[in-house]
């Protein structure tokens, strides 16, 4: 059974959660290591603006109240869908991070699915790409289980670092439907 979570827009008060996700060596192990603490407030501010304008869907994953691991931890992670330009080609990308205490519980899979369902409903994102590190078995498993198609291994730049990734793609309007079942909702 999928865990109960909800998604909410990123808020200015989410700085501590961003620090926990982006500045922690364990959380950032698959993305080239922790980012510096400086600039996190600015990153949150930009993300809040992008979410408010509709430029990107930047969601905080909020676990069901009273569930295991929720005491004193208002968010379980983040899931984001945005457009970006690589060498003149604009495409949609989805990415997610789940705090260690929530990993292995299906929280990330549920949140990714929820955002892809929204993308299907909005019908403005087109094909959605994901680039988990080649060594990130849980994130690659999420892609596989939700109906993404594996394209190839590829190097991508994340925060100025080159990361070896698996390139996955999904069309939320058709491919996500392959995984629709009572147990995946």
Describe this structure in words.
The protein is of the alpha+beta class. The chain has a single domain, classed as Aminopeptidase (3-Layer(aba) Sandwich), CATH 3.40.630. 26% of the residues lie in helices and 30% in strands. It has 4 helices and 7 strands. The chain has helices at residues 15-22, 40-53, 107-122, 137-146, and strands at residues 5-9, 56-63, 77-86, 89-98, 128-130, 149-158, 161-170. A 7-stranded mixed sheet has the order 1-2-3-4-5-7-6, with helices on both faces. Helix 3 packs across helix 4. The model is unreliable at 180-185 (pLDDT under 50).
Q: So, the CATH homologous superfamily?
A: Gcn5-related N-acetyltransferase (GNAT)
- Tally of structural domains: 1
What fraction of residues sit in β-strands? 25-35%
Radius of gyration: 16 Å
Given helix and strand content, the structural type is: alpha+beta
Number of separate strands: 7
Brief write-up:
The chain has 185 residues and is α+β, with helices and mostly antiparallel strands. Helices cover 26% and strands 30% of the residues.
Please outline the helices and strands.
Elements lengths: L4 E5 L5 H8 L17 H14 L2 E8 L13 E10 L2 E10 L8 H16 L5 E3 L6 H10 L2 E10 L2 E10 L15
Parallel strand pairs: 4-5
Antiparallel strand pairs: 1-2, 2-3, 3-4, 5-7, 6-7
């Amino acid at each position: 059974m999928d865990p109960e979570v909800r998604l909410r827009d990123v808020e200015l008060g989410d700085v501590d959660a961003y620090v926990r996700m982006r500045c922690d060596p364990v959380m950032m192990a698959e993305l080239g290591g922790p980012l510096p603490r400086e600039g996190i407030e600015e990153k949150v501010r930009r993300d809040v603006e992008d979410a408010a304008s509709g430029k990107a869907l930047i969601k905080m994953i909020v676990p069901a109240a009273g569930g295991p691991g929720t005491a004193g931890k208002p968010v379980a992670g983040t899931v984001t869908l945005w457009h970006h330009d690589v060498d003149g080609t604009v495409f949609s990308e989805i990415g997610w991070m789940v705090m260690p205490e929530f990993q292995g519980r299906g929280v990330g899979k549920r949140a990714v699915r929820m955002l892809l369902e929204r993308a299907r409903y909005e019908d403005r994102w087109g094909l959605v790409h994901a680039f988990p590190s080649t060594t990130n078995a849980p994130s690659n498993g999420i892609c596989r289980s939700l109906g993404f198609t594996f394209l190839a291994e590829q190097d991508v730049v994340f925060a100025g670092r080159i990361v070896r990734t698996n390139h996955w793609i999904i069309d939320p309007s058709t491919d996500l439907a392959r995984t629709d079942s009572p147990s995946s909702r």
